[in-house]
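Every protein is a chain of amino acids, and every chain bends into a shape of its own. The fold becomes a row of whole numbers, each drawn from a learned catalogue of backbone shapes. The protein below has been through that process, and both of its lines are reproduced in full.
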Amino acid sequence: MEQILERANSWLSDFFDPEVRNEVKTLITQDEEGLKERFYRDLEFGTGGMRGVMGVGTNRINKYTLGKSTQGLSNYLKKVYAGESLKVVIAYDCRHNSDTLARVVAEVFSANGIQVYLFSALRTTPELSFAVRYLNCHAGVVLTASHNPPEYNGYKVYWTDGGQIVPPQDGEIIAEINNISFEDILFNPNKNLIKLIDKEVDEAFISASVNNGNFGAEGKDQFKIVFTSLHGTSITAIPEVLKRAGYAHVTIVEEQREPDGNFPTVKSPNPEEPEALSLAMKKAEEIGADMVVGTDPDSDRLGIAVRNREGKLQLLNGNQTMILMTKFLLDQQKKKGFKGNEFVASTIVSTPMMSRMAEVYRVECKISLTGFKWIAKMIKDFPDQHFLGGGEESFGFMVGDFVRDKDAVTATLLACEIAAQAKADGSSFFEELVSCYEAYGFYKEKLISLTKKGMKGAEEIAQMMVDFRENPVKSIDGSEVVTIDDYSSSISRNLKTGESHTIDIPKSNVLIYKTADGTQMAARPSGTEPKIKFYFSVNTRLGSKAAFEKTEAELDRKIERILKELNLG
């Protein structure tokens, strides 16, 4: 408590705005728990940058925490690119204070003599990633908290390649940030160094999205889409992209069209949550649409619903859409001819079906830690290889390498291309997915997230990971655990042979159990939310398409048994 008080008292200096000082005084005298939550730590960069609740304190998103990060980043840029005329680009989403915080970030950069390109209004995260390279910038920043609740905001940093920062840069930038005090922040802007941008970059991004996502599918004039931006930024790009690609029947959910940081029509603006797409599903049933697409506030994730075998709209998960999108890209490349240097990508907690499918195509599937910054790093690290596409279970996908982050704009177009062509061929998006299960094995996944808020919650999550390491699960649904991959120690242990080997992936607090029957369970604390996540994957052979429903029911029952066994059901 002494350290927390010391931190809080440092915010009572004249450097801080009067209203900030008054709020800190109130916390010190009247709200000990609130004081702890706001000052017990500094916000850190996780898998998606820095993200947190807005408010006063070192553990909050505010003018000072973002200012300090920007000052540290400015210092780092000057060291790495000494003597160069530095340029950065900044975007922001629909969240409360995103526009004003983006302006603060721009002013700090400019006060450090750095040229800033600031979007004149809200834009998608994939457009920011694209803009870094389009404008030949040294770095980029987007103010967003992705799909988190309304009280959150965040700060994601991108490097010259358009991908988010990765080691060693992230650690070096954090060291720069930690080496300065709040009083070192330069808040006095050089307005001549701040340039507003919009239409030119928009046009380049939208054209590139169409070029990369349009494969000339047939039947577009007969294909009906219902689209919702869930009050977010994708309204600035996706309708225009679909229009230019030839989709004439796109119905936008009007109640969710207007960007709004309160997200008034949903409990959570997260397309991973079925409730988020309920209005779009209702509209789709009214007009007989073929597909529903919804995106999160910064437009990097997309959720899809398609007609199943009974003609009913069914929500798909991120693993399912990723499989079919990747297969489509592999088929397109196969038509051109494989050169032998192609690769696709996925993550350690996503479906193992990706690797199995790539194996059949004789194409490498690179596996990374969770987070698209790692997939972007692959593209940079292997310049002689050709990235076709890839994704992760959390509803993200990337088509080609013109954007270096998950991109719901181009992925939405790709999904529509697959579905429209399938319908024109007398099939469907869903039926094509069943064909994948028949060809590569029927894999079924389930994600369980437990929310543990605040300092106490962080301690509980840490203890759960300790327990799973020190008292490992011996079997899952009657199948013996064969290997344990511990990404924090970079050691994979074979429990049968006693052998172990080093995991050639950067360290992360992830633990994965694999059983004799191919079942997989991963435990991972979220890097951007107060959650611990459990990822389950089970699989079996699908003998024929006719056996799909029966086989799926068997896999569902298996997952239910596992959840009950682990007290997660």
